[in-house]
Each structure stands twice: as structure tokens, then as C-alpha cells.
Design goal:
By secondary structure, the protein is of the alpha+beta class. It is built from three helices and two strands; from the N terminus they run H-H-H-E-E.
Length: 81
């Protein structure tokens, strides 16, 4: 696990300089957010990794979003003591 994210990762965290509201309003990320498995593990370092895999591709007319070149991940937060 890296000690800190690289500069490219930090640049992508802001969604290409757009505020979150604009990303949702526009309905697209404009090249904003994409992470490698190691970057996802770093971001969610306090969580247990359950799965990291490519997204299930979706047809353009689908109401769902999915591109196989992007990852989807599932992490579990630790149980409270």
C-alpha cells in the first residue's frame, strides 16, 4: 500500500476541477474519477477489501452505468468495538 497517493491520483480526486453538484447535474464525469486497485486500497485503507473488479458493461440505452475499463469495489468497514 502506498504511503500517500501520487500527484495524478490527487488531481483526479477533484473530478477535473468540477464540484460534485456539477458532475451530477451534467450526468458525466468528464474524465474525472478512475482509480487503480492499489489506489482504491489506499483510499479505503481502514476498510476490509471484499471485491475489486471491472464494471459490468452496459448498453448505451441502459438506465445503468457500466464500462469494463472502470473498476467497481466493495469494502467493509470494521465492526464497532
Amino acid at each position: 500500500m502506498p504511503d500517500k497517493p501520487d500527484e495524478d491520483l490527487v488531481a483526479r480526486l477533484d473530478g477535473g476541477q468540477l464540484p460534485d453538484a456539477a458532475l451530477y447535474r451534467n450526468g458525466r464525469l468528464d474524465g474525472g474519477l478512475a482509480f487503480t486497485p492499489d489506489e482504491l486500497r489506499w483510499i479505503f485503507a481502514g476498510f476490509s477489501e471484499l471485491e475489486i473488479r471491472p464494471m459490468v458493461p452496459q448498453e448505451p440505452a441502459s438506465p445503468l452505468f457500466g464500462l469494463s475499463v472502470l473498476l467497481t469495489a466493495l469494502f467493509r468497514r470494521p465492526l464497532a468495538d
